[in-house]
Design brief:
Helix content: 25-40%
Family: Belongs to the glycosyltransferase 77 family.
Radius of gyration: 31 Å
Largest sheet: 7 strands, mixed
Membrane topology: Single-pass type II membrane protein
Number of strands: 10
Strand content: 5-15%
Keywords: Cell wall biogenesis/degradation, Glycosyltransferase, Golgi apparatus, Signal-anchor, Transferase, Transmembrane
Number of helices: 13
Strand order of the largest sheet: 3-2-1-4-7-6-8
Protein name: Glycosyltransferase
GO molecular function: glycosyltransferase activity
Length: about 375
């Protein structure tokens, strides 16, 4: 069917009613002071009105807008511009800032999820999020790895303090602020200090929330560099799959030494209950971190009764400084584990990236001879 023709404006003759009700005396006069003159005066009034509105706006713009040369300087990203001058996320954040934590979490997870409702999660505080710190190395690994850049679209950075959240919003798309009342997670938390333990257990409780919402996840510490997409290497029959500080060679062997810094967990009733049991077990094992408590409960009869299928990931694919991968042609991730001290971690993580770039640049027939130069500072 042809599209209907547009309606044309209808001209009608002037009537006595027009002259009496809608027209001024000038409208009824001749060429010098008639209709044309009135239209000209109306046009002048319109111009003056627009000028009166535009002038204050122009003054406000110059008061708040950064100079053009600032926006063009290297290292200044678009997100440093106030939302009303160009950051498309600012108005969204303001619109939802009064939402509950639960509603904000649901929205962020939904936006980042893969088609099968799987997300990639990492947590960090301000010490790890500063420019040049661990977060920058972590994100750079996704950009230089094989088939990993697109995974950034599914990564949710969970910030444990406001400074880390502000940094996330400047450089990444999916950010979630995890607030813990009465606890300051902003500074560097040394291994096994009280602040470190609280941060680790807050993480376990948060991951349980994600599972309860129906989202599976790949959890990764931020001091892990990604070189290949790990998803194709997960076991098809594993509910809870976790990396190791030491791998015995058998993915079903409970003697493996798990490392909670990297795990793939499917959302189902078994894993939700496992995380509840794991979190509650902290009270029976005071002073231990989540990894040691997992070691304590992995043989618990209740875990066996749950029927959760536990798998341990090979260090050949998911290596670390405790036990580096032996094959750079297969490795997916490398973890700066078995290393205490933020500066040492950053140094060796950067060295891993250098090793990777050197490997990628090698001719195919020489790649088999590539090796890691780490640990260096984390010996």
């Amino acid at each position: 069917m042809a599209a209907p023709l547009p309606l044309l404006p209808v001209k009608r003759a002037a009537t006595d009613d027009d002259a009496g009700a809608g027209a001024s005396p000038d409208d009824q006069q001749g060429p010098g002071g008639g209709v044309a003159g009135a239209e000209a005066r109306r046009a002048v009034k319109a111009v003056l009105f627009l000028a009166a509105v535009a002038l204050p706006c122009l003054v406000l713009y110059h008061a708040v807008a950064p100079p053009a040369d600032v926006l063009l300087r290297p290292g200044v990203v678009a997100a440093t511009v106030p939302w009303w001058l160009g950051d498309p996320r600012g108005d969204v954040e303001l619109e939802h800032e009064q939402d509950s934590e639960d509603a904000r979490l649901e929205r962020v997870l939904r936006a980042a999820a893969m088609p099968n409702d799987t997300v990639i999660l990492t947590t960090l505080n301000s010490a790890w999020s500063e420019p040049g710190s661990v977060l920058d190395v972590f994100l750079e690994s996704f950009r230089t790895g094989e088939s990993t850049r697109a995974l950034l679209d599914h990564l949710v950075i969970v910030s444990l303090d406001t400074t880390a959240h502000a940094r996330c919003r400047r450089i990444h798309r999916h950010c979630f602020a995890l607030v813990t009342g009465g606890v300051d997670f902003s500074g560097q938390k040394n291994f096994m200090t009280d602040g470190y333990l609280k941060m680790m257990w807050r993480r376990i409780d948060f991951l349980r929330q994600v599972l309860e919402k129906g989202f599976s996840f790949v959890f990764t510490d931020t001091d892990i560099v990604w070189f290949r997409n790990p998803v194709p290497h997960f076991y098809p029959d594993g509910d809870f799959q976790i990396a190791c500080d030491h791998f015995t060679g058998d993915p079903d062997d409970l003697s493996n030494a798990p490392n909670g810094g990297f795990a793939y967990v499917r959302s189902n009733t078994e894993t939700i209950e496992l995380y509840r049991f794991w979190y509650a077990a902290r009270e029976r094992h005071p002073g231990l971190h989540d990894q040691d408590v997992l070691n304590a409960i992995k043989r618990d009869p209740y875990v066996a009764e749950l029927g959760v299928r536990i798998k341990f990931l090979s260090t050949d694919l998911f290596g670390g400084l405790c036990e580096p991968s032996r094959n750079m042609s297969r490795v997916c991730t490398m973890h700066a584990n078995c290393c205490i001290g933020l500066r040492r971690k950053i140094s060796d993580l950067n060295a891993m990236l250098q090793d990777w770039r050197r490997f990628v640049a090698l001719p195919r027939d020489e790649k088999h001879s590539a090796f890691w130069t780490v640990p260096r500072n984390c010996r």
